[in-house]
């Protein structure tokens, strides 16, 4: 089973690799904006960066990592291949390695279910055995999808990345995934673009934030961390980046966790 280390802010995955428990999401950040965002995050202590083929920013992220001056092994880079690439997964993996130009990929995910997803995953298994990908996993797979998919592959995913936030808590799927020894990671941990205003002004969350002298965003990220869920909020703002990682100096009570749990609306903010 995965082992979370609160002191080091890392988790040891089911394949033995170690991953940070928080990081930077880069969806919708491109060009010089994403390069500057990644550079800023790395300077502030972030060591997990999440990207994808469909974000069209792998090249700039690779540049930021290489130019950071940090040892490659200190940075954990996740990328994803898209269903449109599943029919020729080897070419998709090679394209990611070429775009990133950082020797190996720490975590590669299937972006969401699609035709030939088993074929694509088996290609990732092959690259993992060759050492070009360290860990492999899935994104946007829920209970039914996992029950159909897992019997067809050899390697248990190390991670499943799904939409999770207080208005869409996905508790049943999260519990199921964690019961398999797979780490869960939240995309849209703060509700997603276009939906944050209501969530970040929720009166229940504002009351808890006031108690701890924290922002509502920090309360949400802390709640997710205490559920042993990795968080990767996206931001190109250095102040927000600093705020989003300052969540390890306080602990929510069980009562506060339950208060937040009761905010669930099963309100999904994306189609995946």
Automatic annotation (TrEMBL):
Domain NADP-dependent oxidoreductase intervals: 23-264
Residues that, per the record, bind substrate: 111
Catalytic residues of the enzyme: 55 (proton donor)
Organism: Streptococcus pantholopis
Identification of the protein by name: Aldo/keto reductase
Family: Belongs to the aldo/keto reductase family.
PROSITE patterns attached to this UniProt entry: ALDOKETO_REDUCTASE_1, ALDOKETO_REDUCTASE_2
InterPro entries per record: AKR, Aldo/ket_reductase_CS, NAD(P)_OxRdtase_dom_sf, NADP_OxRdtase_dom
Site residues by UniProt (Lowers pKa of active site Tyr): 80
SUPFAM superfamilies, alphabetized: NAD(P)-linked oxidoreductase
GO molecular-function term, one example from the UniProt record: oxidoreductase activity, acting on the CH-OH group of donors, NAD or NADP as acceptor
Pfam families: Aldo_ket_red (PF00248)
Annotated keywords: NADP, Oxidoreductase
